[in-house]
Design brief:
homodimer, about 325 residues, globular
Chain lengths: ~325, ~325
């Protein structure tokens, strides 16, 4: 949850004067998103989300995110759409930060996903991958295998203070993944952060996707691996193979996974677990002064990583035999 | 800012089934209010605020607050109105906490109030006092002079760790106020927390009052003293006599202050400053683990208290001579 930057009504009124949104009626900081400051804004024209991009989002990347949302929405993906200024700009500045207004999406995120939700997420992820195939822009994944070691360097000295043994696990895992990370699998636009709080449902039907601020050009199957981590573990960190099967079936019925993609899935899942372990470790050890964010415990992803290390074949994730590259 | 309790969509759906509000379409935790968890809820019937009353609000007091809002709204005060269940109940339970739904109020709170805003606040406070005169319920002010010493006891040993000298200032002030606190001034319903973030404006016109969760039966002029503290100091802690005059004039044109009330104002203002100093000191020294609230610095109110200690007469607050009990 986060509102890092408070916005004064006068400043917001001035900002909104550049849009065709009518009089500002109310705005409230919302306790969602950990990277940016988000406000629910009510104007004469309706409800909108105002996002102020905080320092962890590179300002130069914001046009990519906004163009991507527009591209995906035009292809039937229900996601927030940037609202443009009278001058046709999607990106502005407010309180010294890049800022944008997007449409408000109804729907709730599911705190306790069940297998049906996982199936729906698989379908939605595959549709997103297909809809992104002709997106012309590229953005490097700043949080993939070639960045992990540098990211870990910030935490290495103190990693074992969180739990003894993290350092050696991470160091050997880094080496393992760097040597084996697949380079030739199908690439495209990935969401890269499709956690339950970024997927909206209405009456158990998936109604929309939000938060494209980690989206980038990367291996599509890696996005599937992120979702396995994000959706298919129970609160006690055990892997739920039914959820995994549903997620993978939903995905594969919409976009086939090649034998090479399926074979790589355990390794990609280890990478995804390590990626979230590393960012959470960084956040855990470096809570900025005055932060209004409770860092997420990195141990959850240490346990997921150790689970993936035991996986012998993609079948262990719930892929049915006839699908598992047989 | 605060969302202390996360609410799952399923639980909220079940809760809302008791109301005539139609299908739940979305809800978001909002970063406002430091005592309770607040959610902006969108249903087929519109937008509402859901409040979960956290432990600092005594469950037994909630019916008072809800009945008061209903009473005031019926008398023309624009404040949130409780939405009742099909069974006519304003108060329910959700996630193990007392919970209520109130109507959503448009309007923005003013980060940088100017004298016009202070005038409007004075008028609104007086109207609230008048509208509350025939409210039949009573609630003792749990944060008035007879509670301050016990409140301070929690912080006394560590008070000087915040700033050397706080302890001696507080101790002598407690004695001073306990001996002189006025008992016979007009009493009634007071808001008791009418800070800028609880007063909404639309286009510089005061449009509504929110957050009645400190409201109680107490000395009306004490509420004025709270507002002097909350509205009439600059960010550098200097007192702005123009703002003070406007606030007092707005109030007095709506409800006259008797000579006895005016004479008591400097003492009441010291008390109000001490009350917020003490609660902030408590919060500052006792941040609960996992808190998502940044405690407010108590020093602001130490400085305000020391200012009020120098006040010789109510004229120093900006009351014009002809009004100042002359």
């Amino acid at each position: 949850m986060a509102v890092y930057t408070d916005v004064a009504a006068d400043d917001l009124t001035t900002f909104l004067a550049g849009y065709e949104l009518g009089e500002l009626l109310s705005y409230k900081g919302i306790a969602e998103g950990v990277e940016n400051s988000n406000f629910l804004v009510h104007t004469r024209k309706g409800h909108f989300i105002l996002t102020l991009y905080e320092k962890r989002v590179v300002a130069g990347d914001v046009p990519f995110f906004l163009a991507l949302m527009e591209h995906l929405a035009a292809r039937g993906i229900n996601c927030p759409q940037p609202v443009k200024t009278r001058g046709g700009e999607a990106l502005g500045h407010l309180c010294g930060r890049p800022a944008a207004i997007v449409t408000f999406l109804d729907g709730m995120w599911i705190r306790r996903p069940d297998p049906r939700h996982c199936y729906a997420v698989g379908v939605a992820l595959a549709k997103l991958h297909l809809a992104g195939l002709d997106f012309p822009q590229q953005r490097r994944n700043a949080l993939s295998v070639d960045s992990w070691r540098a990211l870990y360097d910030h935490s290495a000295a103190r990693a074992d203070s969180v739990q003894p043994g993290i350092a050696s696990t991470v160091e050997s895992e880094l080496t393992h993944l760097e040597q084996r990370w697949p380079q030739d699998l199908p690439k495209g636009v990935i969401h890269a952060d499709m956690f339950p709080d970024n997927v909206f449902f209405l009456d158990n039907t998936l109604s929309g996707l939000i938060d494209f601020y980690f989206a980038c050009t990367d291996t599509l199957a890696y996005d599937v691996a992120i979702c396995l981590n994000a959706w298919c573990f129970e609160p006690d960190h055990s892997y739920n193979v039914t959820k995994g099967r549903e997620l993978l079936q939903g995905y594969m019925r919409t976009r086939a996974l090649s034998p090479a993609e399926l074979d790589a899935l355990p390794l990609l899942a280890r990478g995804a677990a390590l990626r979230f372990l590393l960012t959470r470790l960084t956040d855990w050890l470096n809570v900025p002064e005055g932060a209004l964010v409770r860092p997420k415990n990195p141990i959850e992803y240490l346990r997921k990583l150790r689970f993936h290390q035991t996986i012998a074949s993609v079948r262990d994730y719930g892929v049915l035999p006839e699908r598992a590259g047989a």
